[in-house]
Write the structure tokens for this entry.
Amino acid sequence: MAVLLLAEVTDGELAMDATAKAVTAAASLGDVTVLCAGASAAAAGDAAAKIDGVAKVLVAEDASLGHRLAEPTAALIVSLAGDYSHIVAPATTDAKNVMPRVAALLDVMVISDASGVVDADTFERPIYAGNAVQTVKSSDATKVITFRTSTFDAAGEGGSAAVETVSAAADPALSSWVEDKVAESDRPELTSAGVVVSGGRGVGSEEDFALIEKLADKLGAAVGASRAAVDSGYAPNDWQVGQTGKVVAPDLYVAVGISGAIQHLAGMKDSKIIVAINKDEEAPIFQVADFGLVADLFDAVPELNDKL
Amino acid sequence: MKVLVPVKRVIDYNVKVRVKADGSGVDLANVKMSMNPFDEIAVEEAIRLKEAGKADEVVAVSIGVKQAQETLRTALAMGADRAILVVAADDVHEDIEPLAVAKILAKVVEEEQPGLVLAGKQAIDNDMNATGQMLSALLGWSQGTFASELDIDGDKAVVTREVDGGLQTINVTMPAIITVDLRLNEPRYASLPNIMKAKRKPLDEKTAADYGVDTTPRLAVVSTAEPEARAAGIIVGSVDELVEKLKEAGAV
């Protein structure tokens, strides 16, 4: 059996962590061929060739593939699909945009956000914001899957797979790119960070979110936020952790002023150590926390910052 | 322009989910059900387009059990003009897969000829995040997923999308499928007079068979389980104790 894995490539650069985690998920399914697509993707292809467990890398370079638009990317994957039993990707927003389109074009179902591989046809995936885990067995000829990266360890580097080029499929030219507004940050990327410090509605304002950011910087952490904090305008949406935001599983997750709605827990409860700071001792976040501190965050966070 | 808005009846987002003892799924009997929150945002956006003079008719469509009528009445009370119910299941526990839903929607689109389909980005029950993209593929239309801003301008739409790194803005050619994210708008509540009026708005009832679509699932559910519970933690008494515990655990 053979697996085609769509690598996460942004502006010519490979997102190593997400791609290497998907390689781990895919490796048990068959020989893994990684597809790097972009306006320029050769460097990403070379980087992907070094991931352990990758058998081959395909590089597709074309202007139409430059901005991860769904239509040309899906057309490319479908043009290659015949050789593979599984077509997979890390469950990023880009892949979630593209893979269901690929699946429908192949007349198969998509298996979104798979968190476990049981066998070549059978996968586990969270449903209801992670309040249940469903095991599903696919009867489709080709399995199209996105893998939740937080549940797989990244494959190592040290391989040297062969790199081949492939041509882009005809661009349906249905959409065009205007701009990307990418938040510039020196902090680690949220989904791959070893430590995440998140703030919730309890933080109270955009200005006071600086407290969260300061603690994050002290710990070398990424900054996260609950949906309540995002909805209230305290934090940008790309910081959102939860069912409809990002799913993280760092070594240490510090939840500050977060009550712990199920939508939020869905995004962080696989973290290794969870710390919760909240003044409401009844807050559900304490039920998943390894270490809970019932305190006013405006006292506790600066103190913690000093004592770490 | 006509706008088609697919809406799904799902467990209310405030209800605690319980897995059935036999592992066949989540218990939905006698549980409060509501419109999928993302679909509410899609309905709201469609109504705003109509209010802005950019759309002249809003048609809500739901595919599922007969009880989805209530969901459609909610959409009508918010301001949709008429509704189509496609009955595709008898048992409330039967979830129609996104591929089958997209195939039925493609037939509805053929019949209704909307200029735009506005859908929620994902349903909060199966969390698949797939129907809009699949419909777009089947129709060969452009797609703008996870929209937090939408500006329709003649034969194109400018869509700002919520993506991992921030925001992406794209132009899509109309007709298009747009799936909506949380920050696009805040849905209105239906007023009592509008709820009463909605009862008299047209609601057509069809079946999946009317559209010749086979809804047999491609994914068989082997089991449904509670997620692994985390071991109980401890409450620390002070910041000092917290720092000490974190050091002991090797976390800092």
